[in-house]
Amino acid sequence: MTEISLLKYIKWRPIGVCDTGEGEKRRAKIFSKVDLESISSPGIERGNWRGNPKVMKIIRKYGNDLAKLSSLTNGMSNPEISEIRLVGAVLKIEQTPNLNRESEDGEVQFFQVSFKDSKLKNFSKYNFKQFFKWIVIILGIIITIVFVYKFLTNFSEFSLKKNFKNVQECGFKRGGDFYLDELKNIRESMLTELSSLPKWLKLEEARSKCLGGSIHVDIQEKILLSCFISVKNRTKKIEFSSLPNFRKMESCAISICQKNLKHLSSLCRRL
Fold it and tell me: What is the pTM assigned to this prediction?
């Protein structure tokens, strides 16, 4: 095909679809036998082909295929057909292709398509990717929040159960030998813990409050509460993680005060 022009052709001989390239840069696709028969069906002619949906569908199908071959679409991210025109062609052969043997004069028609770059497809892809990205981020945040919430809930329940166990055990059988030994062991553990702390904390007074060897239950309870209150006041800026026995003494002190014993009322108010 060497020439595409607005020839005043008489016969209806459309054989394919071409682009708007010049000379050797022009690309074309010839209709298949089935599609040619559809285009050349009775009743379809030069004046009404645009109004036939089947014809337009075939032309657009070939035009979209041609967009992949045409050099005119280089650099386009999403080429689409912008215009379709019927143009005449003169073929430099003695006889036109087998699909159109009657055109021995070499004059046929092509549906010429023009292309433009449409950003809609890429924009939609970009929007979808952004949407999917934000969905993943939001789901990740939600899963993290749920995980942290469950962890904190389980940790809190574990701490409460542990503290409740300590509270229940400390003084569960008040007045027995085991109870007195328990109070004594708690104070001795606290003294050992205080000895490991720096001397600049000046814990001598707190240590003195933790000493005492009376076998009377009321006195032992007073000593433990006095010890706890004194240590608490002197170690406010120290993390509890460095004073594990302090937690145990605190639980025991709470347990004792929950009994509402009269001889401990003044000390319990200071907790």
Answer: 0.40
Laid out side by side, the sheet with 14-18 consists of 3-5, 79-90, 107-117, 14-18, 28-30
* Residue 107, SS3 per DSSP: strand
Residue 114 three-state SS: strand
| Sign of the alpha-carbon dihedral angle for 194, 199, 205, 211 | positive
Of 266, 221, 224, 270, nearest in space to 249 by CA: 224
pLDDT of amino acid 3: 47
pLDDT tens digit sequence for 153-162: 776 555 544 5
CA distance 87 to 4: 7
Q: Tens digits of per-residue pLDDT, 92-137?
A: 544 444 444 444 455 778 899 999 988 655 555 557 778 888 999 9
What beta strand segments (E) does 32-78 contain? none
Paired with 86 in beta bridges are: 111
Instruction: Please give the Cα distance from 197 to 249 (Å, whole number).
Output: 17
CB distance 46 to 7 below 8 Å: no
113: β partners: 84
